[in-house]
Amino acid sequence: MAEARIIDGKAFAAGLRARVAEGVAALKASHGVTPGLAVVLVGEDPASQVYVRSKEKALADLGMNSFDHHMPADLGEAELLALIDRLNADPAVHGILVQLPLPKHIDTQKILARIVPEKDADGFHVVNAGLLATGSPGAIVPCTPLGSLLLLRDTLGNDLKGKRALVLGRSNIVGKPMAQLLLQQDCTVTVAHSRTQDLPGECRRADILVAAVGRPEMVRGDWIKPGAVVIDVGINRVPHPTEPGKTKLVGDVAYDEAVKVAGAITPVPGGVGPMTIACLMLNTLAAACRAAGAPVPAEALA
Ligand SMILES: Nc1nc2c(c(=O)[nH]1)N[C@@H](CN(C=O)c1ccc(C(=O)N[C@@H](CCC(=O)O)C(=O)O)cc1)CN2
């Protein structure tokens, strides 16, 4: 059997970013509005610092405003809530991003719930989750599931109808919204998790397999239906197998095994990861369009 087609998330994300840049220029020209995202980072988690820097660079590259709030790890919850209140009230801020994870002394749900839903660029607010779950217009869709769906549509030529989809993982940030998006595409959706019986068997039935479980290389090659499309959301840093003291990134899928069975597969790195940041840019543009009464880019509507 031929090896799987490699889904190039990096290239697709570059194209999406170019389309967002065009949308930004058009909004400036038509309404005199520059989309702006407030980027809130609390503490010094090294991975979060890297992601936040990439987001701030992407904003600048695409002609958007970035309002950076890098706060100390011992910032109090009340101070963070007060910052969110200020950003909610600032008309130049169209989107607010609070980088996760937050330090343990801060109640993440309380912070996310404080962001007004129309500025919730990550789509994590319960109002946006509810709009998505009910198929209502105006939902801001979480970036990683949105990016995964755009890659799936591109791979399958928009033909997801009737396909059996298995989402492995039930987080509020990826698994649940991913399942909602696939349902909207008329897939037959199963959500599997750590307590699912016969996980390999469930996976083997899937035409579309989205792995978002956060366990390095958990999905083995013989769990995959021949020809299935595999979207690997996992980003796990593990000890390098041959270079002592070094680490490497792997997904939730054993790539070398899966690539021999699947019809198409996202690599890690270079698959879903770059789409997360591109979709954040898209959601920020969409929020600015809504605030200005301008048409919202179709890709953001899922
Ligand atoms: N508020 C949020 N916090 C977090 C989110 C999120 O969507 N919103 N997601 C992750 C981290 N994340 C963005 O914040 C993110 C993760 C990975 C990538 C990415 O491009 N990964 C590269 C590899 C990067 C590397 O070498 O480490 C890839 O997969 O090719 C982008 C964004 C948790 N927090």
Q: Trace the largest sheet across and list its strands.
A: 1-11-8-7-5-6
Task: Categorize the overall geometry.
Answer: globular
**Structure annotation, total helices:** 10
Would you tell me the structural class of the helices and strands?
Answer: alpha/beta
Rg calculated over all Cα atoms: 19 Å
| CATH overall fold name of the largest domain | Rossmann fold
Average pLDDT works out at: 97
Oligomeric state of shown chains: single chain
**Which residue ranges are poorly predicted, with pLDDT under 50 across at least 5 consecutive positions?**
none
The CATH class of the largest domain turns out to be Alpha Beta
**Would you list the SSEs in sequence order as H and E?**
EHEHEHEHHHEHEHEEEEHEH
Q: Any idea what the CATH architecture of the largest domain is?
A: 3-Layer(aba) Sandwich
Number of domains: 2
Describe the sheet with the most strands. Answer: 6 strands, parallel
Bound molecules: ligand LMY7XDAE
- Number of beta strands: 11
Keywords: Amino-acid biosynthesis, Histidine biosynthesis, Hydrolase, Methionine biosynthesis, Multifunctional enzyme, NADP, One-carbon metabolism, Oxidoreductase, Purine biosynthesis
Catalytic activity: (6R)-5,10-methenyltetrahydrofolate + H2O = (6R)-10-formyltetrahydrofolate + H(+); (6R)-5,10-methylene-5,6,7,8-tetrahydrofolate + NADP(+) = (6R)-5,10-methenyltetrahydrofolate + NADPH
Protein name: Bifunctional protein FolD
Subunit structure: Homodimer.
